[in-house]
Amino acid sequence: MKFKALIGTSILAMSVASPAFAQDAADETERDAFGGEIVVTAQRQSERLQDVPIAVSAFSTEALEAQQIKTPSDLQLTLPNVTFTKTNFTGASFTIRGIGDLCVGTTCDSATAIHLNGDPLFSTRLFETEFFDLERIEVLRGPQGTLFGRNATSGVVNVITAKPKLGAFEAAAEAEYGNYDSMKGKAMVNIPIGDTLALRVAGIYLNRDGYTKNLFLGNRIDDRDLYSVRGSIRWEPTPDTTVDFLASYFHERDNRTRIQKQQCQRDPTGILGCLNTRRDNAPFNGNATFTAALTSREFLAIQGIPTAFALGSLYGPDVYANTTIPSDPRVVNTAFTPQYFTSELTLQGEIEHNFGPVSLQVSGQYQKVKLDSMQDYNSNVGNRALYAGGLNTLAFFAANGIPTGLPAPAPAFVPGSAAYFAPVAAAIIPNGPNGDLCTSLPEETGFGSFGGNKICDATSLQFDRSNQYNTSWSAEAILSSDLDGPFNFLLGGIYADYHLTENSYYVNAFPIDYLTGVLGAFNSFANGLPPSFLATPFFRNNTDDLKITSYGIFGEAYFEFSDRVKLTAGLRYNNDKKSVLARSTLASFLTPIGLNSDTVFGSPFVGSFDADPGTPGNQIIQARSVKFNKLTGRAVLDFKVTDDNLLYVSYSRGYKSGGINPPLQPIFAVPESFKPEQVDAFEIGSKNTFGNGELQLNLTAFYYKYKDLQLSKIVARTAVNDNINANIWGFEAEAIVRPVPEFVVNLGFSYLNTEVAGDEFSSNPRDFGGGRADAVIIKDITNAANCAVASTSGSVAGVNGYVNQINSLINAGAFAANGVRGGAGLQGTTPFPSDGGIASTGAFSICGILQAAAATVGPAFGGVEVFSAGIPVNLKGNKLPQAPNYKFSAGAQYTNGFDNGMSLVPRFDLAYTGDSYGSIFNGNVNKIKGYAQVNAQIQLNGTDDKWYVKGFIQNLFDANSVTGLYVTDQSSGNYTNIFTLEPRRYGIAAGVKF
Asked: How far is CA 329 from the centre of its chain?
């Protein structure tokens, strides 16, 4: 018999009929009132969904419209064991069966491969837009690689656009208006050009007001203003040859926010910033931050700088002490309005020719992506009145210079010293200490305020910027057979090239400009150098260049033992090479004010900067490269019990390449690279249709054994990645019930269990003491990083006594030889609040001195050990992040047909997602509570489906459900960024089709 090999996935949908945009009978489809099973002949051969021995769900354009799946986030409400959340750095994580983008960084591969028309996409903004003019969306759960050109350990999302139709003119348009003054339009036109050529053009435009109210400025933020256009050409020069071209462009520029809210259980000590028990709507303690530490009286004292320059004390009130955080996630206080821009150009081409027994498909794609986003970093407005003393001192020194301390009647000033402070004051307080405060813009030259690149405001601003520019291309060829007899095959190869030319994450704040200016002035004055500042006057973690090349050879063989039993066996070889140039800067080296150079790296003093301490000498930038290769595969045995009942069992091995960790500042001992991850996946499934289609029931059970799962954590203000082992298992059920053709119910349920396997140790950023009472958590006053000091003999009194002794010696100037002067006034250890979830005590101190003195002073206190990256805890048995324990979804619709040919279709959908965690360290503070979302819609369809009008509501109960968490760095205050579903949206829409 003729065997139709599955290539890619099945191209079908368990879908809901929505007569708008319904396809003509001329299409190769088979439908009932629910949409039924859709079989579409596409670029690759396909089978009915119920014949495919793999866990796959697919949605036609009708299903997307009916179930109100307008964005990628909406997909999670219907699919079993699938979640979607925005992430901290302008990205998103599409998690399947507990595996998502837990790796953070430019060299990380995505766990879930995103494809457009079968071609893999890199760093795509495809999911920024809303869906329009699609043929279908396919979601495969489980490792892929022997059919798709890009490896994936969790699964594949394949977005397939609608193709031009030959010989027929078609057009469709839809207009929508909703709350938040939302206006959206979609349109499509299909134009035949002769008998063998057709053109299809489609587009979408969306403009709405912001979801979030900013009380401080009285405006709304988190709006959208975007458009996307797509043009496609299909040419069929012969019955056996099809040529497709596609060009797509997406553009967005608005005040969209990346982060919805920040939460914190406020730490009154300032050593951690936030505590470890719960997430409150409360401000973090600003004294825990880098800016507070390096502008404090305590730090300036050890530098020998007059403490009158201090903007505060680490033991005094912090800038957020008397502020409040609105409990409503959609209400904020911010002095900085977000800015968001992204664009993506995609070009695709594909040629397919059928030679009879075999067919050849050759395709390629090119992408160009730009992304730039800025947002308030602390989501709060601080009290600038605390800065008055330091600002007045700077203004005084700028006008008069450094006093020599001579006795009255009038102090004398060091001649020429004012010249060192005047340019600093002119840059950051140009209108005096009571005027606007100027903050550096996050820009590539590195001069910031000291080069005139600044923003000035009455408040002390703090904001971040995340930007990225990249291009990529790939070429793929697939040869597949359609032979008579029991044997068939598929053979493919792909080559991909990715080039990132800019990726930076900036943190800007007025106190950073202040400290880099003041410290630079004192440093350059003391050494007889030209008036200088410390560059860069903002934190910048920069990937200057990243090149990734990858090629894979893959294939599958299919053997039919009989009409009912089939064996599939596949192999893949993958080769990945990555090379990167990167550096991290923050107050790193002196740069003369007024330097005639394109960037601060032209400074004559840049030689003191080392971007790569692990390599001898001083490097201006860190260069790293890695390469990986792996052989993977899969095997599937499926048995058709009847024509409507299928059983299958499968094994597959998935692989995702490793990468390179970015440079850190300050320097901590972390691996330079992280290893590839590998998963062995076992699955058993059953696909069933009963009662001539009245019930469709699909069941799947799976077990995954992960080796070297990639997982990120924040160290020294930077995301670094490590590897752990994990086990995952679960169960999925999907059903469609059609008691009568007009009434359809779809149901879904999934259970998921994830756990860290074996002993895996890592330090919890929320608790560097590792839960030990015989430890002291230290806030380092020289960089605001945390470390921990622990007793080697279990002595609580001993470890506290050691820290108190060292602080006394620091205060007395005993470490002057180490460049640390006395007079810091450091206090002794202090307990954290009893409800803070911290067993250790805490103190402000200097980690390097505590480490250096441990061998000489420590034995007198029973012995101590200093953990620069915190005391590791065992993660064994912990749940993986973004892995809900269970999910449930249900939807129902009824088609009321009228005698005049019109119909009225109401629909109701409910989805519930169970509890999960936002961090591998679990605990209540990291818990994401389960949530429900309810959608409803009613649609009136005209005769012959030529027009329709509908009303809709999404998130009926306006739930502010949290989908993901991100715990920031200790030098930023350890607060938690949360990401939420969109609020309640409702409106009306009307559409026509020609």
From this structure: 20
